[in-house]
């Protein structure tokens, strides 16, 4: 049961990182 929770957390973190990267890219485009 614990391992499943860890896997789900890892998935969420990966998704969050992707989202953050996209936001950063938008910010950079806006600055230009």
Explain how this protein is built.
The protein is mainly α and 32 residues long. The chain has one domain. The chain is 94% helix and 0% strand. It has one helix spanning 2-31. The longest helix is centred in the middle third of the chain and has 30 residues, at 2-31. It starts with a helix and ends with a helix. 0% of the residues are buried. The mean pLDDT is 83.
Strand count: 0
Radius of gyration: 14 Å
Question: What summary fits the major beta sheet?
Answer: none
Average of the residue pLDDT scores: 83
State the oligomer: single chain
Outline type: rod-shaped
Q: How large is the count of helical segments?
A: 1
Helix content: over 70%
Structural class: mainly alpha
Give the amount of beta strand, in percent: under 5%
Number of domains: 1
| Unreliable residue runs | none
Distance between the termini: 48 Å
Order of helices and strands: H
Which features would summarize this protein structure in a list?
32 residues; mainly alpha; 1 helix; 94% helix; rod-shaped
Quick overview:
With 32 residues, the chain is an all-alpha fold. It contains one helix and no strands.
Topology, pairings included?
Elements: H1 2-31
């Amino acid at each position: 049961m614990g391992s499943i929770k860890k896997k789900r957390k890892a998935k969420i973190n990966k998704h969050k990182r992707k989202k953050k990267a996209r936001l950063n890219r938008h910010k950079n485009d806006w600055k230009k």
